[in-house]
Amino acid sequence: MTTVEETASSTTTELVEAARVLARLGLVTAFGHVSVRRGDSVLITPPKELDLVEPGELLEIRLAAQELPVGAPPEAWGHLAVYRARPDVMAIARAQPEDILAAGAVTDRITPLHGQAAWLGASIPVHDDARLLRTAELAKRAAHTLGTSDALVLRGNGALTTGAGPGLAVTRMWLLAAACRVHLAAHGAGPVTTLSPEEITAWRAAGPPLLERLWAHLRRRAGVL
Question: 162: part of which helix (H) or strand (E)?
């Protein structure tokens, strides 16, 4: 039987590992964070470079919080808003890859052009507000744009990706950056052919074990496995 203490320790380990992978893959610089839902609270990384985060520095915020605790990243409001709107979301990654910033400046929606991009959903919305999600109201608007999607591009401000765990959220951030690179390359070359609804459904059905396989690859690539 797994104890509460063992579960908490496992969650902490997964969160720190995900943060380090996000950093070592070059998806963040000095900014970005990863969080995980834990009961009625959220465990989130502090405002520091993610490859330097230690387990004891993680911060806990109540889901119903009206104010952020001292030391919490101001954009924790974005995480709280998504968790409140989406009970199915268990973890969130926040980053600012350059390809995502570029794609968010030229479109209002990213449509899958290759199979793996379908693991992000039938389309990825772009939130048309470049302000930092540093208030509950701005964060709530972004969560509304996310809707039922697995990922959200924030115009001029990077992206949020979701998952059943921190590793899957980071994996989706990596996939989103790749999808944006393909989007930019394809649209710069001429007319494009998007995946059909049937193709997207087939890729998403095959996704769960393949996403776990990709997460293991990213962990090895980042040197944490």
Answer: strand 158-163
Within the chain, what is the greatest distance between any pair of CA atoms?
A: 57
Q: Which domains does the chain have, with CATH numbers?
A: 4-222 (3.40.225.10)
Closest alpha carbon to 95 in 10, 35, 6: 35
Structure tokens at 207: 């996704």
CB 165 within 8 Å of CB 182: no
- List the helix and strand counts (H, then E) for the chain: 6, 8
> How many Cα atoms occupy the beta-carbon half-sphere of 170 within 13 Å?
32
What is the C-alpha to C-alpha distance for residues 223 and 193, in angstroms, rounded to an integer? 36
Which tens digits make up the pLDDT trace of 81-116? 999 999 999 999 999 999 999 999 999 999 999 999
CB 187 within 8 A of CB 106: yes
Residue type, 195: L
Can you give the pTM of this predicted structure?
0.88
The amino acid sitting at 106 is: V
Please state whether beta strands 91-95 and 41-44 pair in parallel, antiparallel, or not at all (unpaired). Answer: unpaired
Beta-carbon neighbour count of residue 71 at 10 Å? 9
Q: Quick check: 68 and 77 in contact, CB under 8 A?
A: yes
